[in-house]
Amino acid sequence: MSSSQLFVHHPTSQSQAIRALTYGMEAAKRHATWDNILQTAYLTIASVVVYGVWLALYRVFFHPLASIPGPKLAAITTWYEKYYDVFLGAQYFRRIEEMHRQYGPVVRIRPDEVSFNDPDFIDTLSPVGGRRTTKPALVGLRTGIPDSITGTIDHDVHRRRRNAISGFFSVASIRRLEPIITAHMEKMFGRVDASIAASGAKSVVLSMHQVFRACTSDIITTYAFGENQDILGEDDWGESVTAGSNTWHNLTHVFAAFPVVLLVMRNLPQWAFRFFIPSRELDDLMERKEWWVNKVRTIRESPDPAHLKSTIFEGVLSSNLPAEEKTDARLAQEAQLIVFAGEGTVAYTLNAALYELLAHPAEYRRAREELRASLPAGEVAPSFAQVETLPFLSAVIHETMRLHPGVVSRQVRISPDQPIVYQAPAAGLSKTYVVPPGMCHSMSTRAMHLNGDVFDDPLAFRPQRWLDDPTLGRAFIAFARGTRNCIGKDMAKKLMGKVLATLLLRYDIYEGQRGPTLELYDTTRERDIDANYDMIIPMPAKGSPGLRVGEHVFDPSMRSSLGSITWNTPESAENAENAETRENCIKITLLPAKLPSSFWVRVKVSDCVLAEKGPKALTT
Ligand code: HEM
């Protein structure tokens, strides 16, 4: 029987056979498809592996930076940096310091980036003029504000943007800032004293870093917009407000490693942002940004001719920058830069300076003596001009910024047109190293500032070194150098000098004496002050302890500054009793420090309460 007959006489078997045949063909087809997919996958994987191997070999042996020393993995892949910054958590800055110790003053730290650590080469790397300087997109991504001045890639665009605001950072402009600083500083110290006094009724929460940060934030915001968000007036000294900036700083390495995260965060509508990324801190930051944008809109809609020359954003909006440079979106980024750059760095430096002075009583006393000797008797808030005449105080600020620079991330630049040529026989290098145009070069502040060839005993806090050897300034890069340096450096120096001088005049260091004093309490430099993480600004160790305790006793001379506070309440009586039972002191409980480098001081304001005995004596 032929097969055709079978089909005719056995329809079921026939259709089965057709199905079998069809199935066989489909299976064969599926097989072929799978084969194709697998083949393509193998080919792709093989190509990626071959490309990867080729790229690695190229980067190590044939790349223009191939002759520059450094770990091979750092030369091969940017994942080396990501490993330290994203997976180990903001640690690449430390690795860079190690690399310089291991490989010398010139190290290849990324496939396309060379880090230099030679004080004599700083001005060549960061010239003030004569050579165009750009930045890699990475910097803008990392800050999260690529359209701000600091994130701007192109040299000419940067010059235009910077010129539009540079007038506001001139010495003359900063002088106009002096009354604003004085007013906010008085408010800050007034509040500190008032909360110390209020602790007569209850325990008090004080974080020196947060206190400084509230003050600098209000000052910088006033300078930028003509008014501020009154962070100094917040019960928690604005801790909840500035927590948003901390969260943002914590995300900076993620932005650099995975730019898509930044892209999503910047482009999501606010409701979607809040829905998909629920974070109280980021919510607060969004609100802060809304405040900045609204301020810019108000200024744009009704410019006040009287203010046009006195606040930064009025200046930007009235400048001859093209319209696309003045959009709300771009100016919001500029606002974030100026407020973040100003508040965090200055507050961190003040915090570190106060720590170092309290940890070195001889330097504290010397700075205070210098002030008292050079100021008229009774001066309580020295002026910019008076502070400028104080060499030791200036040395204290320099030495603090050397050990604790307020910006810890490396300074990355590109020379787009000319090669960078490095010859350093002094550093024991016989070779010439060349960074071709378009490749990145960088400097790391901490590596430079802890260079033992320049700074004897580099980890020690010794302000005197700046007075003994004025040439040390050649290795100082806390404010960066060249065309991309810190635009706010003069303002920062004046602000820090004035606040520190006022603080030193106001409080002595506690050595058992009477009168307003400060004393360091349970703080270690490594844990609570030093940069443990690079979040652009430095962050202390994760285990930085929370609970600290301080004590103080009131002084009648403080009453005038306590204003309307009345102390003859049962609570104060109770605490006055407590004060007697606790070695003439009232205990102040300080809450956990959440912020970078927070530390606590013990504040004593004499023992008059005890001398007069009882609540009546506390009446103001
Ligand atoms: C102790 C205080 C300060 C320190 C240590 C500091 C440090 C720095 C550093 C290192 C840079 C360069 C960053 C880079 O390499 O990309 C920089 C840039 C900048 N800083 Fe400061 N800064 C301080 C205070 C301030 C203040 C008070 C302001 C303004 C209110 C300010 C505004 C800026 C701006 C706008 C830039 C970008 C400049 C540009 O790219 O042209 N800084 N700062």
Automatic annotation (TrEMBL):
The keyword Transmembrane applies. Heme binds at residue 486. GO terms for molecular function: heme binding; iron ion binding; monooxygenase activity; oxidoreductase activity, acting on paired donors, with incorporation or reduction of molecular oxygen. Keywords: Heme, Iron, Membrane, Metal-binding, Monooxygenase, Oxidoreductase, Transmembrane, Transmembrane helix. The chain crosses the membrane at residues 41-62. Belongs to the cytochrome P450 family. This is Cytochrome P450 CYP682H1. Its cofactor is heme. The keyword Heme applies. Gene3D superfamilies: Cytochrome P450.
